[in-house]
Amino acid sequence: MNRFGHGNMDLSVYLVADSGSTAGRPLPQVVAAAVEGGATTVQVRCKDVPARDFLAEVLACAEHTAGRAALLVNDRVDVYLAARAAGAVVDGVHIGQSDLPAEMVRALIGPEAILGLSASRPEELAALARHPEGTVSYLGTGAVRPTPTKKDHPEPLGFAGFAAFAAAAPLPCVAIGGVGHGDAAEARASGAAGLAVVRAVCAAANPAAATRSLVREWAEAGA
């Protein structure tokens, strides 16, 4: 069984590996460095990229994450299924509110896969309560701050808003949106299960060192 499945997640240092944020470097290269630095979960996000190219990126990233970090596919259930059919170790999917319904995605990916859902509004929590238990694995909650990597993000919550949402949520919540170095203590104090970062690693001069720093900050904040 995959050691990073639905019931065995480590979301603490969560890299959203965004193909448009790598400062011109190949995405798998950044992912490899992040895994070397201790990233626990990697979500591959390739907006506006043809499915064939997205699949190639996922397959290349899986070579670096297999057995070392959970690998999730952003939005595209078809790419996840294709990668799995190709024999890659992929652990799940992360979807947004406008993607396929969570119950349908769960039926497609099976009970053991990780299914993340973006959620930050009270009405989205109410909708979540109508899903059968085990449908969604965790919530990506934000944006905590404004971020240029996701222009359609909801109104920023701040950590106070994040804390209120996380306290009401029945699932682990990962803080996302404009977060990075220096935020681990406030994130943990706000009830976050992890920090989901993009530019803090993808745009760093040394992604491995940047990830290592985040891992250290997260551990120290919990000490």
TrEMBL record:
- Provide the catalytic activity annotation: 2-[(2R,5Z)-2-carboxy-4-methylthiazol-5(2H)-ylidene]ethyl phosphate + 4-amino-2-methyl-5-(diphosphooxymethyl)pyrimidine + 2 H(+) = thiamine phosphate + CO2 + diphosphate; 4-methyl-5-(2-phosphooxyethyl)-thiazole + 4-amino-2-methyl-5-(diphosphooxymethyl)pyrimidine + H(+) = thiamine phosphate + diphosphate; 2-(2-carboxy-4-methylthiazol-5-yl)ethyl phosphate + 4-amino-2-methyl-5-(diphosphooxymethyl)pyrimidine + 2 H(+) = thiamine phosphate + CO2 + diphosphate
Q: In which pathway does it act?
A: Cofactor biosynthesis; thiamine diphosphate biosynthesis; thiamine phosphate from 4-amino-2-methyl-5-diphosphomethylpyrimidine and 4-methyl-5-(2-phosphoethyl)-thiazole: step 1/1
**Entry's Gene Ontology molecular function annotations:** magnesium ion binding; thiamine-phosphate diphosphorylase activity
List residues of the Thiamine phosphate synthase/TenI domain. 13-201
**InterPro entries for this protein:** Aldolase_TIM, ThiamineP_synth_sf, ThiamineP_synth_TenI, TMP_synthase
Q: Which SUPFAM superfamilies match?
A: Thiamin phosphate synthase
Q: Which residues bind 4-amino-2-methyl-5-(diphosphooxymethyl)pyrimidine?
A: 43-47, 74, 118, 150
Q: Write the Enzyme Commission number(s) for this entry.
A: 2.5.1.3
* Cofactor section: Mg(2+)
Alphabetized Pfam families for the sequence: TMP-TENI
* Any Gene Ontology biological process: thiamine biosynthetic process
| Protein keywords | Magnesium, Metal-binding, Thiamine biosynthesis, Transferase
Q: Which GO CC terms are listed, alphabetically?
A: cytoplasm
The family annotation for this protein states: Belongs to the thiamine-phosphate synthase family.
**What is the protein's known function?**
Condenses 4-methyl-5-(beta-hydroxyethyl)thiazole monophosphate (THZ-P) and 2-methyl-4-amino-5-hydroxymethyl pyrimidine pyrophosphate (HMP-PP) to form thiamine monophosphate (TMP).
Name of the protein? Thiamine-phosphate synthase
UniProt organism field? Zafaria cholistanensis
Higher taxonomy: Bacteria, Bacillati, Actinomycetota, Actinomycetes, Micrococcales
